Amino acid sequence: MEEKNLQRKKRNLTIWTKYLLDFMFYSGILVTATLPLSIRQIGRMLPFMMEHYEVTVMVYLVLGIAALALIRELRRIFRTVLKEDCFVEENVESLRRMGNWSFFIAGMSVARCVVYMTVAMGVVILVFVIAGLFSKVLACVFQEAVRYKLENDLTI
After folding, report:
1. What is the largest CA-CA distance in the chain?
2. Is the dihedral of CA 71, 77, 80, 82 positive or negative?
3. What is the Cα–Cα distance from 10 to 129, expressed in whole angstroms?
4. Coil, helix or strand for 84?
5. Phi/psi zone of residue 116: left (φ > 0), alpha (ψ -120 to 50 degrees), beta?
6. Which of 63-72, 125-134, 142-151 has the lowest mean pLDDT?
7. Taking the C-alpha atoms of 89, 144, 97 and 12 in order, what is their torsion angle to the nearest 10 degrees?
8. pTM of the entire structure?
9. 71-104 burial by CB neighbour count: b if 16+ within 10 A, else e?
10. Rounded to an integer, what is the distance from CA 121 to the centroid of its chain?
11. pLDDT tens-digit profile of 97-116?
């Protein structure tokens, strides 16, 4: 009985996480698409953004698209988790791409610092470098798990 409750809680957590990723993905599309308008609105309160309006829009547009690509890869992984078949080569590739996108976001954030630097951007850069490293290491771990799984399947 307790095992069933644990399994149900685990499945609910996975499903809610998938819904959260879906929300983040679709709201990210909306936010990215409305960047020119929203940056103009924000520029009323933060005039330095309007001094570099075109560059700011382009940098955040590129960052938004990269973030959407990263979330898309996470959504792909969660589909396999929901199918209870997560040790597959597709997830290894998704983790590698997530690492690449994380490093790209960190690099673009560094480039953004040329226009204007904030302490928060330093934190963002650090978080995405760590996320990139974590994704690359996890891809290696998943690659080994896939290899073991395939060996096991061939043995049986």
Report:
1. 66
2. negative
3. 29
4. coil
5. beta
6. 142-151
7. 70
8. 0.87
9. bbbbebbbeeeeeeebbbebbbebbbbbbbbbbb
10. 17
11. 999 999 999 999 998 888 77
